[in-house]
Amino acid sequence: MRRILLSTIKILISAALLYLALRKVNLSELASRINIASLGWIGMAIAVTFLQIFVGVLRWREISAECVAPLATRQAMRFNLIGTFFNQTLPSSIGGDAVRLWLVARGGAGWRAATYSIFVDRAIGLIALAIIIVASLPWSYSLSAILMAGRRCCSSTSRRSRAAWDFSFSAGCAGPG
Length: 177
What we know:
By secondary structure, this protein is mostly helical. The chain has helices spanning 2-22, 27-33, 36-66, 73-89, 95-109, 111-155, 159-170. It has a domain at 40-137. The relative contact order is 0.05.
């Protein structure tokens, strides 16, 4: 009975938070902006996000085993998804790590091993990100040249059109007009 009551409270809180987050969204306008072609890209983005989370789970599981805080894949996936949720909802980027730390320590691994596994996992993730950034620099230089050429083209026109060009690139569009 207590479990059913707890689940009902969780569902009601989730529904209330969804309502608060989406109450001012015009769903018909949102639906009109999503076409069939973009559904494939949206699906691809969701799939890649879950693949990235799963790879992170496998990495963390191996790290935690070395840190004397072994986790089963299912448990590591659960803790990582909970941590990802808190990373997205809390104003800091370490809230999810704190939740993962608490869950692992509470599971019997101890605070020291749990802390070490989270820190090492975060450090390896940052190193991997740095390697990806360095590896992608050649493409970013050519993209920067294209952006600067477009900006110079608009600089001879009005400031308003140049601002529109800058905004359109920051919004992910091909340019003004």
